[in-house]
Amino acid sequence: MRVLLVEDEQRLAENIVAALREVGLAVDHAADGETGSHMAEQGVYDAIVLDLMLPGKSGQSVLHDMRHRAIHSPVLILTAQEGKESIVELLNAGADDYLSKPFDLGELLARVKALIRRGKGTSTSLLRMADVELDTVHQTVLRRGETIDLSPTEYRILEYLIHRPRAIVSKQELLEHLYDFAWEHHSNVIEAHISNLRRKLNLAGTEPLIETLRHRGYRLTGGAPA
Amino acid sequence: MTTPSVSITRRLVVSVLLLELLAAVALIVAITVHERHVQLKAFDASLAGDAESLMGAVQDAEDQGDNVMLDLRGVQLNKHAVYRVEDERGQVLGSSGDPALLSRAILNPPGFFEAKAGQIGYRLFVLHGVRTIDPGKPTGGISHKIRIVYGLPVGHVWHEVIEAIRFFAIATAILLGVTAILMVVLVRRHLAPVHELAYEADRISSRNWQFDAPLSAKKTVELRPLARALEAALLRVHLSFEQQKRFTSDAAHELKTDVAIVKSSLQLLSMRRRTADEYSAGLAQSLDDFTRLERTVEKLLTLARLEQPAESDKGDGTQPSCSLRNAVEEALHQSRPLAELKRIEVDVEALDAAAIALDGRDALLLCSNILVNALQHSYERGKICVKLARRGTDVVLTIQDWGEGISEEDRPYLFDPFYRGDISRSRKSGSTGLGLSICKAICLRIGGSIEIANHPAGGTLVTVVLPAYKRISTTRELSA
Question: pTM here?
């Protein structure tokens, strides 16, 4: 999952980016409203963390322009303001959640993850697909009750696919949502990770879970998610 | 202790009633004098008339000695009247009343006078006349010189006067009562604009600054200045309140952000188990973040202190003073590493001796803030020019750089707390946005000024004008 952080405060941004990356999210950072707005409009973010007081373009206008251009990424607002009116206004303008500064980093992570889940149409932190169970809080994967040990990238690919059951997900889409600008990304890296993921998920007597469609991408099969 | 309340209505009513009362008393006195005069005149006329009647009642006695007698038939006399009629021989022809009073009174020359008999005061009239018996006779008749004293108790006159006074006193009392009631009603009605103004003013609160003086108050000549003053004062208070509110909100924002950084640094560090090196780097980073929080708090406190009235500088009431030249030299010394880092040439054009009424630390803060600002906004290998000169009773410090200059957009807000123009001036450059606010507060504190402008050569020119310290002996001592 890929998150955009729009925050002008350098040190705070550094900490938030580090924390989001620690929980396996790809993070891009914009230090001002104008840049943030441009980045958000690419539409590749699964969640956006937006500070309100930004130099140049304010957080409010970033949010407004984004929603105006039909970018539906869930938005978490960071604010140091107390006024309830402005919060109500922001929620009405299309924000999904807000957090007051100084916030708890753990809470920020939990809220961002919840926003990503809700953005994908899931409300629990436990995702199921056929006999695979994915715990997004502890980042563990079980198949038929057996723990499957995945690398962070493999886990992220599986999480992304589980969020889009039976949809064809292209390599490009995976690249866009799993990697931020800080990564060197090549499509053959994806192929390698998918192959590893398949091997690890393939327990004795189970059906193959990930289907490859030539030139089109990947699809998670095996019944409806619980 | 409660302040005794004063009512304008009451004062007005009491004043008018007192004036009316005074006028009424004066009127009554005048009436008394006049009435007494009129009554006495009438009284005297009646006395004279009655005396003439008595004279008329002196008749021929038809006796041998051609004497006269008093014949009172047909003469109507007041029942309280006293009189005595004598002929030239002292023969009493008729008398009524206190003989002692009358025998004495009849000796008075003709005319009016007053006398007392016991408790009763009388006004008396003495009339001398001649009565001729048988004037038809060839001898020409016999003339008798008649003396008459006639009097009436004077109390009657006073009774009339008192009656008149009573009438006027009652009329005045009624008039005063009616006036008082009318006054209260009218004054209340005419003071209504004051109440309306007060009502409107009472609605002002920190939530509602809307104040429009009622039309009635604006139309009233006496209230117009008050209404205008209220409107103007309110506008100033509102602006200052808004400024204060903005400052508080900005300060809270800054502090919260700094706290958020510190908190997130520590939380990030504790998210999972880390290596000793990671912990050590994380702690060092957290310490840096703390230092920044500390610096923000310190600057906020400095600004708050500087914006306090200057009287509280020292307990003993003496003014602080220092040499601005020393402060500039110290600031130059402190900023040398930054200048060397950016290879900026710092050119000191002049450094006149200049004592100012500022605490040494504040003077240094002022100089180093401006200098560091100039260095930060200069290009590498640039130049800065510092000049300190006396100009009349002022001390002028100018610091010129050939850097990026300031945008016209930012100019009005440069001294606002927490204002950081474009992104390059934002927090990441390490500024708290309080430096220039602090400079301005320092200058204003001693009645000086600070201005920032772009100069034609490109770059910024900061001009600080401060009044020179007044005590000459100290100036010499400091500039030495």
Answer: 0.61
